[in-house]
Amino acid sequence: MANIISRTPVREQEPATRAANFEEVCYGFNLEEAQREASRCLHCRNPRCVKACPVGIQIPNFIAAIAEGDLQMAANIIAEDSLLPSICGRVCPQESQCEGSCIVGIKNEPVAIGKLERFVGDWQLENGTAEKAVIEPNGKKVAVVGSGPAGLACAADLAKWGYEVTVFEALHRLGGVLSYGIPEFRLPKERIVEREIAKVERLGVKFEKNIIVGRTLTIDSLLDEEGFAAVFIGSGAGLPKFMGIEGENLNGVFSANEFLTRINLMGAYAPERFDTPVRRGEKVAVVGGGNVAMDAVRSAKRLGADAYIIYRRSEAELPARVEEVHHAKEEGVQFAMLTNPVAVVGDEKGWVRALRCVRMELGEPDESGRRSPVVVEGSEFELECDTVIMALGTSPNPLIASTTEGLERNRRGCLVASEEGATTREGVFAGGDAVTGAATVILAMGAGRKAAKAIHDYIRSTVDRQPTKSK
Amino acid sequence: MYQILRKVKLAENIYLMDIHAPRVAHSAHPGQFVIVRATKEGERIPLTISDFDTERGSVQIVVQTLGVSTLKLCEIAEGECIEDFAGPLGRPSDFVYENVEDLKAKRLLFIAGGVGTAPVYPQVKWLHEHGVEADVIIGAKTKELLILTDEMRSVASNLYIATDDGSEGFKGMVTGCLKELVEVQGKHYDTVITIGPMIMMKFVALTTKELGIPTIASLNSLMVDGTGMCGACRVSVGGKTKFTCVDGPEFDAHEVDFDEAMRRSGQYRTEEQRRLERYKDHKCRIGLDK
After folding, report:
1. I want to staple A330 with a disulfide (CB 3.0 to 4.6 A). Which of A15, A266, A357, B193 is the partner?
2. Cα(first)–Cα(last) distance of chain B, in Å?
3. pLDDT tens digit string along B64-81?
4. B246, closest residue in chain A (CA to CA)
5. A387 lies in the same domain as A412
6. Which long-range contacts (CB under 8 A, 24 or more apart) does A461-469 make?
7. Last residue in a domain, options A378, A393, A408
8. What domain range includes position A68?
9. Cβ contact A428:A219 at 8 Å
10. How many domains does chain A have?
11. Is the pLDDT confidence value at A468 over 70?
12. Nearest Cα to Cα of residue B222 among A262, A214, A210
């Protein structure tokens, strides 16, 4: 192991340049770089990276295929377990999954598995087939609610098995959080997201936009009137949380969801092309430490603001991907750690003037094992700012559960579902953030695939039962 | 794509459109709204449903051109299509769930202002079809800006018109007309439902509070998605934060913080004005080239 070469650096836009545009930060590997990086893999007999991958991608195998220059083979290996490598290669928290378990990482830097996955995914988008798949239809219809990662994965598997799948999307654009949440500079929409979705369309999956299940249609109408044999709910966790502190309804206070939706879904970062406005603050405070907070703060920076992260724990506890924090710092985002807002302060016209905060220190570990922050007495101060963005997490939208009999939710508002995705209502399955609360793209994708399998089993079992069923 | 089946100019800058959207028409109830996007580059605009026809599969909206997005929407001709039309959104009016016999025992008064007349119409029509009587006050600056008066007359028990300049009906504000009905004519109302500009609804609420009449207001807050995702439509009701899109759009008017709601509605006004001027300027220059 002594002569392992160092991790291949990935080319990126210069921080000063990219902090003023919305183009993708990371350029990714070229073939030469990818092969060099692939040569660092030890091909462990008992690969820990595979175990650490939520969908169990055969990582050493696809990396070996890259090393041999057989990119089609690499793509095929990934496709056995993952539908969206170009997306997951970009947004997965590799440091706590595959790369975090990489043996090379014990003494050196781990193999850049995420960047290699992305390389293969992008190669496939450029060079893969654009033809429609030929699949024998089995005559059964399945409805999928939501076109985010969970819904796409579920729809793709079912379509491959011959089901006639229709995906219903509430917004005017497909992709769920991939479209409205994650910014262009981290996940390009036309170049990556739309083309990954096009792969699912080529499997024969139909998409209907502007359909709000729970309003335009209901789960019952899908099952009883529209002839779907089963429904998969992958409606995500779209409801923003607020702190409940004084001044939160002042002008200039936004949820990260609103700020990012205006920018990503509505294109507000390009005012010469799109009509939707977005607040361009001079000094923007983003409250929170997750990936959404990083997306919001880096977007605010790109719109020209002095941008701050306000987080109540210390840097070690930031839940965001390490790469996002690193990028944010490079771009000049300032981090106010161990700081907690207690009120938003307004001017005489009702606009934000400052964020009143207290300093925190870390006390005893809480039930999550993280040391819980405690207020430092007498530490109150005001951070002047004209915009506050709350990035405190999201919870599932209650619309579907509240309009569907027999669909149970837990106390956090998440749908109750088995490991395989079966809900408390027969014929209705669920997965992704709607079940787990806000989590990751890869977990949602994995849940969508598990549910597809369960739906397949369920429909086959009802078909077997059908002759005895009278109508 | 959603076709404009019919387009009628109701008044200066106010247009009625029937949009082909069978799924929305099928599920619509009085009090709900839709999100409309005129073009691929357009904003998502919330508009209250003003009528729907399940047989024809159409939903009616009434639009006043206020900014670039409403202007662009109103420039689309009958027979052409708009990009997106999503709904029905929000909770239906409470009376949809009430016992019709109970409703019949109530004296209801609707107070509509300007383009807010449009969403009042399906509610009064629904009540009329269920044998429930309702009075209506329509307010406008001047006679030329009154809309849907004939339609309203056909479903309302009594229709009162108030114009600021007295060009038709009662001279003055809707609140003056309301006071006249209650205090001078001795009419009694159990519930007032008001839809119109925020400022009008604020003063209706103040007046009905004084008169002791329970009142419901339908808010037209800023929204992006309209499904509970963005929180742009936050409004304080009884000291608690509510989302207009999913908790409303109808709320107890006496509990709504209208001053906050008006301030929040104006958050993008400067930007919107700038864009409107740029758009008009652009249109002018295109005109000159011809």
Report:
1. A15
2. 30
3. 998 899 999 999 999 999
4. A399
5. no
6. A462/A229, A462/A427, A463/A140
7. A393
8. 15-127
9. yes
10. 3
11. no
12. A262
Same domain, A249 and A382: yes
| Tens of pLDDT, residues A323-379 | 999 999 999 999 999 999 999 999 999 999 999 999 999 988 888 777 889 999 999
A133, pLDDT greater than 90: no
Helix (H) or strand (E) run with residue B47 in it: strand B45-48
Decide if pLDDT at A459 tops 70.
Answer: yes
- The minimal CB distance from B228 to the residues A209, A238, A254 is found for A238
Q: Report the CATH number at residue A71.
A: 1.10.1060.10
Pairwise CB contact (< 8 Å): B43 & A276: yes
Q: What is the mean pLDDT of chain B?
A: 93
Whether A134 is covered by a domain: the verdict is no
The overall longest dimension of chain A from CA atoms, in Å, is: 75
| Minimum distance, in Å, between the CA of residue B18 and any CA atom of chain A | 18
| Cβ-based neighbours of B48, under 8 Å, separated by 6 or more | B31, B32, B33, B61, B116, B118, B119, B195, B218, B220, B249
pLDDT bucket at A129, cuts 50 / 70 / 90: confident
What is the per-residue burial (b if ≥16 Cβ within 10 Å, else e) of B152-165? beebbeebbbbbee
CB contact under 8 Å between B224 and A252, yes or no, is no
Segment B106-136, tens digit of pLDDT: 999 999 999 999 999 989 999 999 999 999 9
Cα-based angle A397, A400, A401 (whole degrees, multiple of 5): 90
Q: Which one-letter DSSP state was computed for residue A250?
A: S
In chain B, how many H helices and how many E strands? 10, 17
Question: Is the CB of residue B241 less than 8 Å away from at least one CB of chain A?
Answer: yes
Please answer yes or no on whether A249 and B236 come within 8 Å at the CB atom: yes
Confidence at A466, pLDDT banded by 50, 70, 90: low
A248 and A384 housed in the same domain: yes
Is 90 exceeded by the pLDDT of residue B274?
no
Question: B96-130: b or e for each residue (b if 16 or more CB lie within 10 Å)?
Answer: eeeeeeebeeeebbbbbbbbbbbbbbbbbbbbeee
Look at residue B241 and give its three-state secondary structure.
strand
Q: Does B88 touch chain A (CB under 8 A)?
A: yes
- Give chain B's domains with CATH numbers: 2-89 (2.40.30.10), 94-218 (3.40.50.80)
Is B168 an interface residue toward A (CB < 8 Å)? no
| Pair A340, A321: CB distance under 8 Å | no
> CA of A342, closest CA in chain B: separation in Å?
17
Buried b / exposed e over A272-303, threshold 16 CB at 10 Å, is eebbbbbbbbebbbbbbbbbbbbbbbbbbbbb
User: Which whole-number Å values give the CA distances from B73 to A138, A222, B16, in the listed order?
Assistant: 43, 32, 11
Average pLDDT over residues A198-207: 95
A279 lies within 8 A of chain B by CB: yes
Are residue A173 and residue A230 in the same domain, yes or no?
Answer: yes
Please determine, for residue B246, whether its predicted confidence score (pLDDT) is greater than 80: yes
